[in-house]
Amino acid sequence: MPNKAAPDASRRSETARRAILAAALDLVAEVGYAKLSIEGIAHAAGVGKQTIYRWWPSKGSLLFDAFLTLAGEGEATALPDTGDLAADMKMVLRATVDELNDPRFDQPMRALHTEIVHDPVLAADYVKRLDEPMRELKKQRLRAAQRVGQLIEDVDLDVAVDMLFGPVLNRWLQHTGPLTHDYVDHVVDTALRGLGPR
Amino acid sequence: MPNKAAPDASRRSETARRAILAAALDLVAEVGYAKLSIEGIAHAAGVGKQTIYRWWPSKGSLLFDAFLTLAGEGEATALPDTGDLAADMKMVLRATVDELNDPRFDQPMRALHTEIVHDPVLAADYVKRLDEPMRELKKQRLRAAQRVGQLIEDVDLDVAVDMLFGPVLNRWLQHTGPLTHDYVDHVVDTALRGLGPR
Amino acid sequence: MPNKAAPDASRRSETARRAILAAALDLVAEVGYAKLSIEGIAHAAGVGKQTIYRWWPSKGSLLFDAFLTLAGEGEATALPDTGDLAADMKMVLRATVDELNDPRFDQPMRALHTEIVHDPVLAADYVKRLDEPMRELKKQRLRAAQRVGQLIEDVDLDVAVDMLFGPVLNRWLQHTGPLTHDYVDHVVDTALRGLGPR
Amino acid sequence: MPNKAAPDASRRSETARRAILAAALDLVAEVGYAKLSIEGIAHAAGVGKQTIYRWWPSKGSLLFDAFLTLAGEGEATALPDTGDLAADMKMVLRATVDELNDPRFDQPMRALHTEIVHDPVLAADYVKRLDEPMRELKKQRLRAAQRVGQLIEDVDLDVAVDMLFGPVLNRWLQHTGPLTHDYVDHVVDTALRGLGPR
DNA sequence: AGATAAGCGAGACGGTACGTCTAGTCTTCTC
DNA sequence: GAGAAGACTAGACGTACCGTCTCGCTTATCT
After folding, report:
1. Nearest residue to nucleotide E25 when comparing alpha carbons to its C1'?
2. With D174 labelled, which of A89, A92, B54, C154 sits at a CA distance of 20 to 30 A?
């Protein structure tokens, strides 16, 4: 039994919702995460603060929703499959770093990741609605590679995905090095060939 | 001609410095990054706010210094070398996840990483004073493995390090899965063997 | 041509009207004037806010109506006349202070007076619908006294009423002293006898 | 033992204090009591809100202080004494109504009285710092009148003061009639002569 | 040794933003 | 068409911190 009356979603203003999400993206890109304020978003969206507090429990969840409109929730249905696993993975990862290098995506993604680092609830949501679906697509491509003998059979596909995509995300988050196409090519080649001899 | 008089470091109070760093660690562990305030740290350390602002340019750099006292700057001089690369890497990574799972380390590290994500200057400092030295140790161990034929010759060692350590850091930051010894074992085995057949 | 359609009073819900007035009185007595809100009244009355805004132009006018239901508009038809002016005035004033000391009346009256102080329109309404009728009754009693030689002929009856009732109201409003029967007796005696010698 | 550290008054900024009081007076005169906000005062005074909240417990006490700067705390030392009580009281009361009719005084005084009506603590302060001293001056003048036989001996001087000044304040607060010199003359004459015959 | 000056604890200052509350308007649905 | 319900824009509330500043006090260095 909820002790606080939930707002009636059927009456929600779609106009306001969209204005808020757009304003959040614009503002985070403009002023950066540190200076992003609910008050600023409300003002930029031409909306009362309460309208934000009514529908989002935290700045993180708002950023998450905003990010989803940017990413297009569940837009991709499959990774490219030209028959050459290495080439396909390089293509995907190159597109990823291009996105990460795009200022329009960079700031919102950093903001979202910051929230995820500190908010396990939000992180769970992120895993379920963004990470899992994307991970599934990646695993599907890897399974297809297994079928044509381009990937060993007895590998943990989650670990495989982590090894292919983790290093790039880390380098971006931690500014430990430049995000280039060369780097991702190296990562794909190394991951596929393995570090050990033979 | 500097327009702002630099503080005279020779007169700096070591007592205050230590109290501030300790209070920062205690507080971030206690209340979390989001509720961590300079004012709170100053109060907990029994110190005036100005003493913090005088010596640290940002909350991030303070957290960095605090973290260094926790990690023990440049304490380790070499990674273990029993002759078995896989076993050694598993040992190191298991120790790493144990640390990441330790509440005393978890919050300060998350706080530091948050700052790094948004502050390239701090990130550069982090890379130079923490990431680079640790990375060098790891590369030394990998070079030793190359000498005894446990690691292929023509591999980019930076990429190798990223593939071994990146997935763990990632999983921790994004809460994408549990950080277990099993997981790191999988990662090491897979990285060494490679994803491709043969 | 009115630009705002006037509500059709014939369709007005008497139930809602009464619930609102009752809720206003209850709430002002319970939480005090400062924390009295239209929203709170609407909620307590089980009524939509619009129903209040439709029928009352201001919080003051609502309080005024509520107060009228408490006072019983134009209920008294004459002041007591035992033939002894002083005794009759003391009786009336004692009843007045008893009312002012009654918590049920105290808060609503203070609220109403606050609104009157700042709203000349409401004040005019108050004068016409509450002050004037009461004042007329008082003047009637004074005129009767004049007829039997208990009050001088050439006195401004409005001034006389002000001198008898004003001090009590003031003392109550300003908390300048306790409102006792003794005090009103003093006022009546002094007013009738005059301050000057003889 | 106070549970909340009291601010250190010795460090108080006199500039800020004066700016706040002046801004409060200006604003209440300009926009009226109903639209007077702490935020507005702070802004007009070029001051942070906290500086107001630090030094005044309520809007009422701020208005009180502001009013004191307007009235000049304890400025008058004695009422005029020409030997003619009636003439002197008329002079004083005429000055009073002139003040009440002055827009510069009207709004702040109404604001202050509103707060007093609802805040007994503030009312006590008002009585002590403004009402009592003024009342004492009035009573001194009345005592002087008693000495020269212009006022009866056995009268409660507080009641006498209430009868002379109460009606004017009342008429002003409640808008029950115009505040004219004629009116105060009537009041003084009637009070001194008394309502009863002879 | 006394003067000088810096760091220090303390905390007031002008501000920004927080998250909550209410005003008054508007919209939707029911009776 | 009035009414219950409640979302909407707007903005004040009182609180928490920001980063700067000023105040005495304590040290350390320099005449």
Report:
1. C50
2. C154
